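call fold(seq) -> tokens
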Amino acid sequence: MGMEQLEDIEIQLLLEGLYRYYGFDFRNYALASLKRRILNMVQAEGLKSVSGLQEKILHDPECLERFLFNLSVNVTTMFRDPEFFLAFRTKVVPILRTYPFIRIWHAGCSTGEEVYSMAILLKEEGLYHRSRLYATDINETVLRQAKTGIFSLKLMQEYTHNYIKAGGKSSFSKYYTAAYGNAIFSSELKENIVFSLHNLVTDNSFNEFHVIFCRNVLIYFNKLLQNRVHTLLYESLIRLGILGLGRQESIKFTAYEKNYEKLEGGDKLYRKIS
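ret:
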């Protein structure tokens, strides 16, 4: 048996142990990207094998935290894919105006850039005061970071550019204060945001939503897991609710393809019709 086959067995045992002991189910994540991250972590922890990593994770909760942080994909920016947010502003906001109260779920919110972007957009459209944004992630470390609303000042030039392209109606700098190399976002933006732990793979629906964003999360799952998550998203959306996916994701070839219609002019925005 080759070294690579042995590594694959060790990875399966690690994932099985994680699931049985902690309840985190990564067993159906896309293997190539998972393997790369696990082997990088073996090196970073100064270990010789995946089995060594398994032992450390099962006996050291801090190592588990680091593992979850490295496994979660935390690459995100404010107003990422500005054309998506522009389409949301022009196509979805008029629909949201018809509701007395709006519930939005950001599934896999990472460090929170997307949810703060949405808070700004809703504020500018006069809808934030009657909205509740639920930002969830599997990873406690990134959620703690998201709750602070503090981002590096170096990123603000890129974020400002995205904000303008996304149809921003004000001056982006009015939403944050600069201090010690950081941009501290206004506490007003956090008033209607609820941050909480939620595992898309093992946890159930916890509310009914008018809008759900699950962007750039599904690409890391295999088909089985994608189907399971699509079921959860479908069951969590109200009838005529809006689902927003990432640039490389689609409702096509899923069990729910016929239950949605693509919003006209709304790239990666789908409306639940049945």
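Strands lie at 102-107, 131-137, 150-152, 176-179, 182-185, 193-197, 209-214, 237-245, 260-262, 269-272.
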